[in-house]
Amino acid sequence: MNKFGPAARQGDLVQITRVEVKGSRVVFELNYGIKGGRKWWHRVQVSGGGGGGMGNGRQRGTTLGNGQQTHAPGGTEIALLFEGEIPEQGSEEFLKLLRPVLDFDMRSADELYMESIDPKFRAAIEQQEVIEGMDRDMTLLAMGKPDRKVRDFDEGIETEDWIYGKPPGDVVFVTFEDGTVIGVKHAHANLGGQVSQTKPIER
Q1: How far is residue 80's CA from residue 39's CA, in Å, rounded to a whole number?
Q2: Angle of helix 136-143 relative to helix 109-116, nearest 10 degrees?
Q3: Does 121 fall in a domain?
Q4: In this model, does residue 138 exceed pLDDT 90?
Q5: What is the distance between the alpha carbons of residues 35 and 98, in angstroms, rounded to a whole number?
Q6: Pair 39, 121 in one domain
Q7: d(CA 141, CA 181)
Q8: By residue range, what is the domain housing residue 166?
Q9: Same domain, 127 and 89
Q10: Confidence label for 191 from pLDDT (cuts 50, 70 and 90)
Q11: Is the pLDDT score of 72 beyond 80?
């Protein structure tokens, strides 16, 4: 652990790269073993000129291997130990024995996070709605990144509005205080930028 770090974190994508029978053990190699795992090219960043013409000094880059379902940071081995001979059984039976450690349902980190939150927030996220009590991560899952953010100070209290939508059309204001949603306002903005508030949604 000190030398190579964790073999995998919750939500990481791992691969069984070899299966070997050793006496009364069935050994499963993950991500090419202890010295496998992430490769040097997972840390390479490729950058190029951004929009706006040449000489603007802006670059946009991406890291190879970077993504939600990435390979685990390292490899390892997992062994199933049996008393006496290894029983004659199908692959599904062996997979059941590994399920306390490995999840074969290909769920993403977002899906695992969704299972851990309050059911009322989960239901709102699935409907792409934001309700009071959510945090920033839940809001991002429900509605994505806002079009812009505005901070405000009033009587010593700092709030932040995440604004979704642009004139002309519907605009949603999500207000945060200390990282928690304290209000959601739906409005309609005209071409001139004026916003007329609509009736709030009853919950």
Answers
A1: 27
A2: 120
A3: yes
A4: yes
A5: 22
A6: no
A7: 14
A8: 117-197
A9: no
A10: low
A11: no
Two structure tokens written together for 196: 């007329």
- In this predicted structure, the answer to whether residue 129 has a pLDDT above a threshold of 50 is yes
Looking up tokens 């932040």, which residue turns up? 160
Mean pLDDT of the chain: 78
Whether the pTM exceeds 0.85: the reply is no
Q: How far is CA 36 from CA 21, 98, 134, 161, in A?
A: 20, 20, 39, 45
Contact (CB, 8 A) for 40 and 62: no
Q: Is 85 left (phi over 0), alpha (psi -120 to 50) or beta?
A: beta
Where does a domain end: 77, 108, 139?
A: 108
Asked if residue 81 and residue 45 are part of one domain, the reply reads yes
> What is the rounded CA–CA span in Å between residue 105 and residue 149?
37
Phi, psi of 32 (to 5 degrees): 65, 25
Specify the residue for token string 């008393």. Answer: 83
Q: Beta strands of the chain (E only): which ranges?
A: 16-22, 25-30, 45-49, 59-63, 76-81, 148-154, 157-164, 169-177, 180-189, 195-197
